[in-house]
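--- STAGE predict ---
source: upstream dedup step, 1 unique chain passed
mode: sequence only
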Amino acid sequence: MNRYKQREQAFLLVFEKSFSANESEDLCEIFEENIEPLGDYAKELFDGVCEKCDELDSNIEKYSNSWKIHRIPKVNVAILRLAIYEIIFVGDTPSSVAANEAVELAKKYSGKEDASFINGILGSLIRSME
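--- STAGE serialize ---
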C-alpha cells in the first residue's frame, strides 16, 4: 500500500477521533473490521498525532493568523494535525511532500478555499523551520 493511501487512512482515523471518546486502538480495530486493513505507516501517523495533539494544535493556532482551533472545521483540523505531525516528527518525509498530500486530502474531503487555507498554514510553518 502506498504512502498516500496510508496518509488517507490516518486522516480518516484522526478525523473520527475528533468525534469519538473511543481509545485509539478501538478506532483502528473498527476501521480494519469495517473498511480495510490499516497500513503500518497509517498506524504510526495516527498514534503520533494522538500523542502530540496539543502541540500540533498549538502550531495550527500559531500559523492560522490567530484562528482558534474550535473555529476551524474538524476536517481541516484533522488534515493539518496529520501534515504538521509528519513535517515536524517524521524525518524521512520531505516537508513539501507532506504539505502537497495535505492539500490533496483537502481537495478531496473539504473545499477549494480550505485547500488554500491549509496550504497557507503549512507554508508558513515550513518557512519558519528553514
